[in-house]
Design brief:
The strands form two sheets. A five-stranded mixed barrel has the order 1-2-3-6-5. It has about 160 residues and is of the alpha+beta class. The chain is built from four helices and eight strands; from the N terminus they run E-E-E-E-H-E-E-E-H-E-H-H. Helix content is about 25%, strand content about 30%. A hairpin with a 2-residue loop joins strand 1 and strand 2. The protein has one domain: OB fold (Dihydrolipoamide Acetyltransferase, E2P) (Beta Barrel).
Length: about 160
């Protein structure tokens, strides 16, 4: 993965308090525990009420837990997407803080590893769309994660 850095407004020193699933986490903001929906990706469902667990959903959730649970992250906001979704979750990119202090865009890592797919919600493209589209194409061509496990033939899962 190439070296990149946030381009939008950021919030540093945020701790992930819980991973809900592959594309939603909870973070501590002051005294509040706040849900955050990761911009630009979708992972198979594992906790959606009245819906079955989808192919590769548990693996996507486990991946997010292994990478983010209890970790300090940087949230990046994107003016094209707004601050909250219809479920009142904060919309953000999640940047992992690596041991050397550099940052890694977790949203892209999920797609690049085949644990989720690129997904644009709404009509306005988001800032990191090109990176996530490229990561998805590479994962698809390599048959990583859900691209192999779920019998997907190049279409959306």
């Amino acid at each position: 993965m190439r070296a990149v850095a946030p381009v939008g407004q950021i919030l540093e020193g945020v701790r992930v308090s819980r991973v809900v699933d592959g594309d939603t986490v909870r973070v501590r903001l002051g005294e509040e525990d706040v849900p955050v929906r990761l911009i630009g990706l979708d992972t198979p469902e594992t906790v959606k009420p009245d819906a079955p667990v989808e192919c590769f959903g548990p693996e996507a959730s486990d991946y997010a837990r292994a990478m983010l649970d209890g970790q300090q992250v940087v949230l990046e906001f994107d003016d094209t997407q707004g601050r909250r979704d219809r479920y009142d979750r904060v919309l953000a990119y999640v940047w992992r803080v690596l041991p050397d202090g550099s940052l890694r865009l977790f949203n892209e890592e999920v797609v690049a590893s085949g644990h989720g797919v690129e997904r644009q919600y709404g009509v306005r493209p988001y800032a990191w769309r090109d990176a996530l589209v490229g990561a998805q194409e590479a994962a698809r061509q390599s048959g990583l994660g859900l691209w192999d496990a779920c019998g997907i033939d190049g279409g959306e899962p």
